[in-house]
Amino acid sequence: MKVKLNKFFYWSILFQVLATQGVLSFIIFKFLGNWEIKKLLHPISFFLVVMVFIVQSSKKIKITILDILFFGYFLVLLVVMFININNLESAYIVFREVYFVFILVFIFSQVEIRQEQWDKVLNLIFYFFILNSVFILLTNYLGPEKYMKMITGRYQWGIDPEFKFKISNFYKFWRSPALIGDAASVGYFSVIGYLLMDQNKKFKNKKYIALFPLIFSFVRSAYLVFFIYEFLKFFTKKKNLKILVLIFKIGVPLLLMLGFVLSKYDILSLESLYHRFYLWENNTEIEYNSFFGGAIGNVGGGARGQGFISTIDSYWLFMLFSSGIIGISLTILFIYEKSLKTNKFLFILLSFLFAGFFVSLTQSLVFLALFPLLFIRLKKQISTT
Fold first, then answer.
1. pLDDT (tens digit, 9 = 90+) per residue, 63-84?
2. What's the predicted TM-score (pTM) here?
3. 84/199 Cα distance (integer angstroms)
């Protein structure tokens, strides 16, 4: 039996979406006198969702055998995490990286939301698409120095050591933090927002607004998610199979030529990918068990300040070290079980499955906040006729 979503749960979801806008919340709380309050928004939004769910669900939670196996295994890993970590701040970061997304996926797969409520959530995301697009344009019009001084009162190229906002460049364009905080988060907010809207016919036109901030985020892993999803969605239709054959005959050579030209002018470069493979091979010397992991807390956020091992740049490598092959297998089975079992949803999962090899997905607060929303069910309308 599904848990009914009341207004408190609905507002907690809206709050979770709002919490992704780091620059916006920074501006608001700085005006109110203490910008550091913005750091609390995401953890508050998470615990608010959990608490409302616990209070409202009572005995209506649906638990499967896989849930017991999955959470039982990761509960054991939680004990291992506390053995490996000696301070609460690092423990929270690792807990966030490993457990937040699983807990939220479990919760949102249990609830049903009314169509009108869900439309308001998607409209909020749509308005953020527009606002972030405006601020991306503003960044490229003003330049990085004027833009950063406008939103923070000071300028720091790259990552601001205190505020953690990041500005960089791609070819002749500025990679703007927009209203979120960094280009990578802008890219993932855009692509996940697009995917959420693509499941709703009412937003079949509005979803395309997401393409502007997505494109100008210059985040290749977000491009990859979008491309794989649209590719699978288009070419799994029988009527489009002939086009696929034509693309392989004509399109592939053209793409190779285009790739060569773009790489020649440093617009498209594989250098960062080669460098990443080099780091994976040479800078990830850590003790772990292939089947059980056991290095949870010694990689990712728990290893801050220890070089490449603190980022890894691969979610699946992070999970291999943390939870082993058993943990990865349980994760894939768990996520699939909670999915909506539609073709579109399967394409979404495959897109992130592949992208996860090249990016640390759960180090993004935007991913943690928005990806679980894909698992929410819409409440069926009861006909009165």
1. 899 999 999 999 999 999 999 9
2. 0.89
3. 41
